[in-house]
Specification:
The complex is a heterodimer of chains A (185) and B (586). Chain A folds into two domains: 87 residues, 2-Layer Sandwich (Alpha-Beta Plaits), CATH 3.30.70.260; 74 residues, ACT-like. Chain A, domain 2 (Alpha-Beta Plaits). In chain A, strand 6 and strand 7 form a beta hairpin. Chain A is built from four helices and nine strands, in the order E-H-E-E-H-E-E-H-E-E-H-E-E. Chain B is of the alpha/beta class. Chain B has three domains: 169 residues, Rossmann fold (3-Layer(aba) Sandwich), CATH 3.40.50.970; 166 residues, Rossmann fold (3-Layer(aba) Sandwich), CATH 3.40.50; 171 residues, Rossmann fold (3-Layer(aba) Sandwich), CATH 3.40.50.970. In chain B, strands 3-2-4-5-7-6 form a six-stranded parallel beta sheet, with helices on both faces. In chain B, strand 19, helix 22 and strand 20 form a beta-alpha-beta unit. Chain B starts with a strand and ends with a helix. The chains are: A alpha+beta (185), B alpha/beta (586). At the A-B interface, helix 1 and helix 2 of A face loops of B. The complex binds thiamine diphosphate (TPP).
Chain lengths: 185, 586
């Protein structure tokens, strides 16, 4: 099928637009099933979820914050925002992509990374961890678990390097994000 | 603070406080307390359907014909799953309905208990919102929120799932019918500057067109009045989607007929060639646009819709206004009157449109031996147009012929399944209308295949002595399927012949209704009049030409100015009309 020259509404996906990554902060009513509503919408409409974190943030008002990283063309990102905003349980959607908007936003992620190995590889792993400011949170004679926090890109780089020194397992929290400055989302 | 009553009583009390007069439903284990409460009161009338899908469409019919919220009550498990089609139908056509479903008691949820289904899970994708009530304290708020959300903004279906123990539990009830919702705030203002900009565009336009949709109907009868005034003031030509028929009178001077796949030649050509398109309460659906990149290439496009997600979804527009259609029209009229300025002369544009009209795209070969389906609708229209008539349809060729040949002069008179295309919608929807409007003439224009999908509702119609009429255009085929097989699949009529059809006259009689049959054009008028005069439900078996196709037609994957016209099209042209790209589309 010719995507540049769509024959019907079914085929109009991102014409001549590059995909962008966006971090969305979705403030929702903390009620049963609310996460399923948001994720179900992404599944039903074919939107991407690259990472997802969710937890109650303002317990007095019973609000939760879902921080979701998605990717798509600018027009798809726009569609995602209005579709999510339309859900009844959603209070508001904010774009907290680091270099988006007037002030930009902070994005951080935490990862736990397990490497296995002995001898030189083990030493090299430790050195790299130090260079990346990662903490050693567990150690045995033939393994380490490192904890690293930072921006997604930085963590990606660290994980890539670890691959050559015995990486076995990774667990990531997904992105947490907040607006810079005094204003709130 | 209110008095203490049971959850089941709260349900009924909410219905009463919300002004609901009739509900449609079917009992079962998980809703017995609610049925007990129904038994012990007289404020809310319960109509017993014969299948929960019937209840869902009846609630839709009740809602669309009155502008009020329709209500259905179903039991857990199969009761709820049977309602799913109607909920989905209401979601796609923006019809406000509230479905109350029973659920197994709270402590059994998640145990695969008898008749347990994850109803909120199943219906999450086919409702605007839904709730599982886990505490009696929440029930009054949730019930009233349900009504608020169903009818506000872009209307739609909602579901409240109530476990049986909650129905038995006692709690305090308060009438919260005036409250809104803490997070859901649909737009209720309008950007005056944007409306001014629209009027500016209108003043510069030489070839404008209004493309209106179901949003006008949903906005209420006042919006339709404003639309008529707007058209009169501006002299713009107007076309509408299937869902918008009746907002502007079908007999009005500026009416071009419906647009889209089976729309008129003049409407589609005008859409293609216009320089300004004013889309009010429609959503650029694929039945409307045809080939997207050849859709109205030279026009500036304005989109007015209450739902932000509809804007720029399929077609990028130049100017969008997120607001209620009625509010927009009101504001635009005010600006036009205040400026008291003139529009360009549309004389040339109208001349062009008139030349398209001369093509006479709806013509068909008349026949004195067999009833042509188009002729049947024309006669039905002529013989019922001066009555208080409501028309519903099933899905197929008969639906398109009804849209083409029946002229609707008022809103809320035309009920059809547009977005989902649900065969089996029309008859229960007609029953829903008839319950709301006991004295009106309500006719379901049906096909021989569609009508069998919810024929059991005839029993409902007989029980409540509803005067609903079923007018079957009986061509012995799933005509629309056969037409597509002819167009796309070498005329291999795979499984679309209506074999072993029942004798519809005898079927009506078996239910205790009346059956009437017409086979010849000459007997049609008398038979229709007999149908109108017969009290109670009637099945009219109108035996029509078997192999007639529905034209004009924009073959899938083609542009608006690439229509197939009926009269002069050869079988060969029909067979070649759709290319490989078009074939994959539905
Ligand atoms: C529930 C459902 N199943 C299948 C279809 C696909 N479909 C669309 S039109 C049609 C044929 C309808 O036949 P009939 O009711 O006889 O109407 P006609 O086209 O002959 O007027 C079918 C099967 C549908 N729209 N709905």
């Amino acid at each position: 099928m010719n995507k540049k020259n769509p024959a019907s509404a079914y085929d109009i996906i991102s014409i001549n637009e590059d995909d962008e990554r966006h971090t969305l902060s979705i403030i929702v009513d903390d009620e049963p099933g609310v996460l399923a509503r948001v994720i179900g919408l992404f599944a039903a409409r074919g939107f991407n979820i690259d990472s997802l974190t969710v937890s109650e943030t303002e317990s007095k008002q019973q609000l939760s914050r879902i921080t979701l990283v998605t990717s798509g063309s600018p027009s798809v990102i726009e569609k995602i925002k209005v579709q999510v905003d339309r859900l009844v349980s959603v209070h508001r959607v904010a774009d907290l992509t680091a270099d988006y908007g007037q002030y930009g936003a902070l994005e951080r992620e935490l990862a736990l990374i397990k490497v296995k190995g002995t001898g030189n590889k083990r030493l090299e792993a430790l050195r790299l961890a130090e260079a990346f400011d990662a903490q050693t949170v567990d150690a045995s004679l033939d393994s380490f678990v490192f904890q690293i926090t930072g921006r997604t890109r930085e963590i990606d780089r660290f994980i890539n390097l670890m691959a050559s020194v015995g990486l076995t397992e990774v667990s990531r929290t997904g992105v947490a994000a907040l607006k810079r400055g005094a204003g709130s989302t | 603070m209110g008095k203490k009553i049971t959850g089941a009583e709260m349900v009924i009390q909410t219905l009463h406080d919300q002004g609901v007069e009739s509900v449609f439903g079917y009992p079962g284990g998980a809703v017995l307390p609610i049925y007990d409460a129904i038994f012990q009161q007289e404020n809310v009338k319960h109509i017993l359907v014969r299948h929960e899908q019937g209840a869902s469409h009846a609630a839709e019919g009740y809602a669309r014909s009155t502008g009020k919220v329709g209500v259905l009550i179903v039991t857990s498990g199969p009761g709820a799953t049977n309602a799913v089609t109607g909920l989905t139908d209401a979601l796609l056509d923006s019809i406000p309905i509230v479905c109350i479903s029973g659920q197994v008691p709270t402590h059994l949820i998640g145990t695969d208990a008898f008749q347990e289904a994850d109803t909120v899970g199943i219906t999450r994708a086919c409702t605007k919102h839904n709730w599982l009530v886990k505490d009696i304290k929440d029930l009054p708020r949730i019930m009233h929120e349900a009504f608020y959300i169903a009818r506000s903004g872009r209307p739609g279906p909602v579901l409240v799932d109530i476990p049986k123990d909650i129905q038995f539990a006692e709690g305090e009830y308060e009438n919260l019918s005036k409250t809104t919702h803490k997070t859901y705030t649909p737009p209720n203002t309008i950007d005056g500057k944007a409306v001014s900009a629209v009027v500016d565009l209108m003043q510069r336009a030489k070839k404008p067109i209004i493309y209106s949709g179901g949003g006008i109907i949903n906005s209420g009868p006042k919006a339709s009045k404003l639309l008529q005034k707007f058209v009169q003031k501006t002299n713009m030509p107007i076309t509408s989607t299937l869902m918008g028929l009746g907002a502007y009178p079908g007999s009005g001077d500026n009416w071009l007929g419906m647009l889209g796949m089976h729309g008129t030649y003049e409407a589609n050509m005008a859409m293609h060639d216009c320089d300004l398109m004013l889309c009010i309460g429609a959503r650029f659906d694929d039945r409307i646009t045809g080939k997207i990149d050849e859709f109205s290439p030279k026009s500036k496009k304005v989109h007015v819709d209450i739902d932000a997600t509809s804007i720029n979804k399929n077609v990028e527009v130049d100017l969008s206004i997120i607001a209620d259609c009625g509010k927009f029209l009101n504001e635009a009229l005010k600006i036009i009157e205040k400026r008291n300025n003139k529009f360009q002369s549309f004389d040339l544009w109208w001349k062009q449109i008139d030349s398209w009209k001369k093509v006479n795209c709806l013509q068909y070969k008349a026949n004195s031996d067999v009833i042509m389906p188009q002729y049947a609708i024309q006669r039905l229209y002529e013989l019922t147009k001066n009555k208080d008539t409501y028309i519903t349809t099933e899905v197929g060729q008969h639906q398109m012929w009804a849209a083409q040949f029946y002229k609707f002069d008022k809103p809320n008179r035309w009920l059809t399944s547009g977005g989902l295309g649900t065969m089996g919608y029309g008859f229960p929807a007609a029953n829903g209308v008839q319950v709301a409007k006991p004295d009106a003439l309500v006719i379901d224009i049906a096909g021989d295949a569609s009508i069998l999908m919810n024929i059991q509702e005839l029993s409902t119609a007989v029980q409540y002595q509803l005067n609903t009429k079923i007018f079957i255009l009986n061509n012995s085929y799933m005509g629309m399927v056969r037409q597509w097989q002819q167009l796309l699949h070498g005329n291999r009529i795979s499984e679309s012949y209506s074999d072993s059809l029942p004798d519809f006259v005898k079927l009506a009689e078996a239910y205790g209704a009346t059956g009437i049959r017409a086979k010849k054009p000459a007997e049609l008028d008398d038979a229709i009049l007999e149908m109108i005069d017969t009290p109670g439900p009637v099945i009219f078996d109108c035996v029509v030409a078997n192999l007639e196709n529905c034209f004009p037609m924009i073959p899938s994957g083609k542009a608006h100015n690439d229509m197939l016209l009926g009269e002069n099209v050869s079988d060969e042209e029909v067979a070649k009309a759709i290319d490989d790209d078009g074939k994959i589309m539905v």
